[in-house]
Amino acid sequence: SAPTPEHPLFAHRVVPLASISDPAHVDAIGAGLVAGGLPVVEVALRGEHGLGAVERLAARGDLLVGAGTVLSIDQARRAIDAGAAFAVTPGLDAEVVRYVTGAGLPIVPGVLTPTEVQAAVGLGLRRLKLFPAGVFGGLRLLSAYADVYRDVRFMPSGGISAATLAEHLAHPAVFAASGSWIVAAAAQGADAVAALAREAVGIAEAAA
Ligand code: 3PG
């Protein structure tokens, strides 16, 4: 059975994406997001540092940690073992969706086309990632989908920044927006991440 939309993930309107190039940045990411009032992170399982970052961030206990770029059941299993509380995927894989929902966790799979939206709905999902939104005219796609798929809500991702966050969050078909621009400041330290997190939270509050 699909997890209910009341999972804490769905309380957040901005989901920062962390792609870890240097494990030395992980603590600044966690501390910065918490200090900035945005205690949620999607850690991309790209490269060798992703799983370790999931584990280290989840061990803090003060922010909601999920795994992104989950491409296989094996990756999903490892991420959940490491403490991931939700999963995000770039595309729609029914087996991965069934595995994660079977583990009792929410999954937000990536979709782009109407066929993919309908396949995800057929798997019992109503909250989907629109990826890569920026490449495909995300806001216009969202308007087209909102007319047709009345009970589906989207998390656009790909090319979103502080400059375009408000227009995405104002769209009625959007439950959250995700992107890497907040955690991109990790090399500058926790304060830099916190400043960008705070800015995003302010934009989300103004859009509410
Ligand atoms: C994703 O995986 O969601 C995207 O790569 C995020 O895109 P961005 O880096 O352009 O924010």
Written account of the structure:
This protein has helices at residues 26-35, 50-60, 73-81, 94-102, 114-122, 138-148, 162-169, 190-207; strands spanning 14-18, 40-44, 64-68, 87-89, 107-111, 127-130, 153-156, 177-179. It is α/β, with parallel strands linked by helices. The chain has a single domain (8-207), classed as TIM Barrel (Alpha-Beta Barrel). Helix 2 (50-60) links the parallel strand 2 (40-44) and strand 3 (64-68). It is globular. The two termini are 30 Å apart. The model has no long low-confidence stretch (mean pLDDT 96). The structure holds 3-phosphoglyceric acid (3PG). 3-phosphoglyceric acid binds at residues 17, 68, 131, 157-160, 178-181.
Salient structural properties:
208 residues, alpha/beta, four-stranded parallel β-sheet, 8 helices, Aldolase, Aldlse_KDPG_KHG, lyase activity
Summarize the structure.
The chain has 208 residues and is α/β, with parallel strands linked by helices. It contains 8 helices and 8 strands; from the N terminus they run βαβαβαβαβαβαβαβα.
Write the layout of secondary structure elements.
Blueprint: E1 14-18, H1 26-35, E2 40-44, H2 50-60, E3 64-68, H3 73-81, E4 87-89, H4 94-102, E5 107-111, H5 114-122, E6 127-130, H6 138-148, E7 153-156, H7 162-169, E8 177-179, H8 190-207
Parallel strand pairs: 1-2, 1-8, 2-3, 4-5, 5-6, 6-7
This protein binds 3-phosphoglyceric acid.
3-phosphoglyceric acid binds near residues 68 and 158.
Keywords: Carbohydrate metabolism, Lyase
Protein name: Aldolase
Family: Belongs to the KHG/KDPG aldolase family.
